[in-house]
Design brief:
Layout lengths: L3 H8 L7 H14 L3 H12 L14 E2 L1 E6 L3 E4 L4 H7 L1 E2 L5 H8 L7 E4 L3 H11 L5 E6 H27 L8 H7 L5 H11 L13 H6 L3
Antiparallel strand pairs: 1-4, 2-3, 2-6, 5-6
Helix pairs in contact: 1-2, 1-7, 2-3, 5-7, 7-9
């Protein structure tokens, strides 16, 4: 197994290492040290949150802009007030990292990713903004990059505490006493809140830029 904690701490700082591939290793480590709450959070981030799952605050009310479909010009900004745009153009993001990372790699930096609405959501939104045309919500790609970096930062802070607690070095497994000691680190809310507070100062990369072929054809 090598040094699982040290390896994970190094991987989250590597901009070429996709978060999609880091999360399974993080889940494995959480299982090894019996950090069940951390493991559950990591699994939700990897695969996505179910419709009845409570979302962390950083996944709620993601701000964007209202778009409408024009017969002449395609999708254009909706003719609504700034207040309406601010009030209505937000989403709760349940997609897992696997989906988010692949989607973002198809877009250039500072481009926008469009989210379609269900027929029920569309009808309710049309009534609220007094429009009859098709509507959608666009979110800046950098908003998703920031969210992915926040998840990386959460894992990074968790590994730092584990290293400080003596979990560094070669390990094929962890003893009962070590797992009991690791229980103090089984608190994902603590770490993602810390990540939000310390975000600007952490040595953790955002989403890398995709090459031209990746944007056209996606990743394997």
């Amino acid at each position: 197994m090598g040094a699982p904690v040290d390896a994970l701490e190094q991987r989250v700082r590597d901009p070429q290492d996709p978060l999609e591939e880091i999360l399974p290793a993080s889940i494995t480590l959480a299982l090894m040290i019996r950090n069940r709450r951390m493991g559950s959070w990591l699994q939700n981030e990897f695969a996505g949150y179910s419709e009845d799952a409570e979302l962390p605050s950083y996944r709620r009310d993601i701000p964007g802009h209202l778009m409408t479909r024009s017969p002449q010009y395609g999708w254009i900004p909706a003719p609504v007030s700034e207040e309406q745009d601010r009030k209505e153009a937000h989403i709760h993001l349940r997609d897992g990292v696997r989906s988010l990372e692949k989607t973002c790699l198809r877009y250039r930096k500072d481009s926008y990713i469009q989210h379609s609405l269900s027929p029920e959501e569309m009808q309710a939104l049309q009534a609220r903004v007094n429009l009859t045309t098709d509507l959608a919500i666009t979110i800046n790609r950098e908003t998703y990059s920031d969210l992915l970096r926040l998840i990386r930062s959460t894992i990074y802070l968790w590994t730092l505490d584990l290293i400080e607690a003596g979990f560094s070095g070669e390990h094929n497994s962890f003893s009962t006493s070590e797992r009991e000691q690791a229980a103090a680190m089984d608190n994902p809310d603590h770490y993602w809140r810390r990540a939000m507070d310390e975000y600007a100062n952490l040595p953790v990369p955002g989403l890398r830029q995709a090459g031209v072929l990746e944007r056209f054809f996606g990743t394997a």
